[in-house]
UniProtKB/TrEMBL annotation:
It is found in: Cell membrane. The chain crosses the membrane at residues 22-44, 64-93, 105-124. It is a multi-pass membrane protein. Residues 18-128 form the DUF3817 domain. InterPro entries: DUF3817_TM. The keyword Cell membrane applies. It comes from Microcella daejeonensis. The lineage of its organism: Bacteria, Bacillati, Actinomycetota, Actinomycetes, Micrococcales. Keywords: Cell membrane, Membrane, Transmembrane, Transmembrane helix. The keyword Membrane applies. This is DUF3817 domain-containing protein.
Length: 159
């Protein structure tokens, strides 16, 4: 039994990779917004408020918000985007990586850190597709004709 992905897995891998790339960028962007929100909330005791008494977008004291709390929006959206990111990571690990890495589950966990550590998802958005495309290229590579012995030399071929 062959270990690793099969040729029939390639369409699933490509679809998952496309969604993964988008989710990686979105998750990373909202994670940066989440870091800004955490700094304003816990460092300055302010939340990001939309359409409040202080204007269209303002940093308002946490207990006095009357407009839309953008901080809570960032928390919720990042959480759901991370679930999508983690799902794509899992499918990629399950179909493309499993059985090919010495420690395949650690690869899954390492890529999962992209939605937790700021800017890491942008790095993975470039690295993971390269690795997966190399795996796909290995699968698509023809095995080549089976030969029964060494190729004939030019003298043997002309005789």
């Amino acid at each position: 039994m062959a270990i690793g992905p099969k040729a029939s897995d390639i369409p699933l891998i490509r679809r998952t990779l496309a969604v993964y790339k988008v989710s990686s960028v979105l998750t990373g962007t909202f994670l940066i917004g989440l870091v800004v929100m955490m700094i304003t909330r816990y460092g300055f005791d302010r939340d990001i408020e939309l359409n409040g008494p202080s204007g269209f977008l303002a940093l308002s004291p946490v207990d006095t918000l009357t407009g839309v709390n953008v901080s809570i929006f960032l928390l919720a959206v990042h959480g759901w985007l991370y679930v999508l990111y983690l799902g794509c990571d899992f499918v990629l690990w399950r179909v493309a990586y499993r059985g090919m890495h010495p420690q395949p589950f650690l690869k899954f966990l390492w890529i999962a850190m992209g939605g937790i550590i700021p800017f890491l998802s942008f790095f993975f958005e470039r690295q993971v597709p390269r690795e997966v495309e190399a795996i796909i290229a290995r699968i698509e590579q023809p095995a080549g004709p089976a030969s029964s012995g060494p190729a004939p030399t030019s003298q043997e071929a002309s005789a």
